[in-house]
């Protein structure tokens, strides 16, 4: 009555799976010249979705002789083949538990050898060698290979890999001079811009991890993240209103700060310049959860995780310097990590989508065509809106250069893509 579950006649209202372990003494039947024993039998009608009946077996001398079992199932819900596989896995689990009784339940084996080979070999796509390097090292490699290639675009502004690298090096040295280094966090509170990408890279070059604060977020959420993460400083713009200790703020568009930044070398940061050596295990960024299930929690991700993500998926996509990506999402949303570092670690071009354009599917479609975007990353709900605009403006959609659409963030309804595939 308290829970008040939805009533349905399709299943038992209290529980759907029953396990009955019969360990009472076996009934006996004594008669001259007659041997009798008890067997578990199904009555041919399932009361529950699944019913496991297990009984202890005994030998003729009364000693334990294993377990016997029967699994009764609802044919409206399960096929015999499915139940057979379930039984096989259950036996594997019991056998493993009997052999190694001290191990935790989560480590017990439930896959057959064939299934394990499928998961580890067939579905895994083979072993991928991923370099043990940091994000700045991999970016600097691309800046050396493709110095004159466009690295990032925002509206009518753009930076080459060489320009982005040099600007980030200068700001990184400013941060190092202020005592910033590995095992520390630097908050970023900036609108979408070239400066945002430069500052983000600068934080990593200094050795710290970045804490993205979206200026459009509610002020109480930003205050909570600042109080919880305790960053060493906050890189921001003069037109961004953020409540924090003024001594923590570094206004990257302030004339005095710009003058100070220009004093520093534009060469790559040497390990000896940092507070300590930067390793792949150091924190690259902290992004907070939405807090939908309670208080937001900061998730700390090291450099090696981002590098491995891109390295382990390389055989799927084979991204290269010819790809053009969009940063559609807020940099405080974890999807942005894939969007930002995908192009910058492969020598491609990153197009930072203006906030107003990200809220207008038609303008976004036009941007995709204008910039000849090849890699689009979307949540399904955002892509459904793009599908509709593409259908209504076929003359624009026909000019798309997309190679991949990568989905994330929520469940995808494949049936809703039929309309898109019919045109592309």
TrEMBL record:
GO-annotated cellular components: cytosol
Domain Condensation: 7-117
GO molecular function, a single term: catalytic activity
SUPFAM superfamilies in the cross-refs: Acetyl-CoA synthetase-like, CoA-dependent acyltransferases
Domain AMP-dependent synthetase/ligase: from-to ranges: 139-422
One family name in Pfam for this protein: Condensation
GO biological process per UniProt: amino acid activation for nonribosomal peptide biosynthetic process; secondary metabolite biosynthetic process
InterPro entries: AMP-binding, AMP-binding_CS, AMP-dep_synth/lig_dom, Condensation_dom
PANTHER family documented for this protein: NONRIBOSOMAL PEPTIDE SYNTHETASE, PLIPASTATIN SYNTHASE SUBUNIT B
Name of the molecule in the record: Non-ribosomal peptide synthetase
Native species: Bacillus wiedmannii
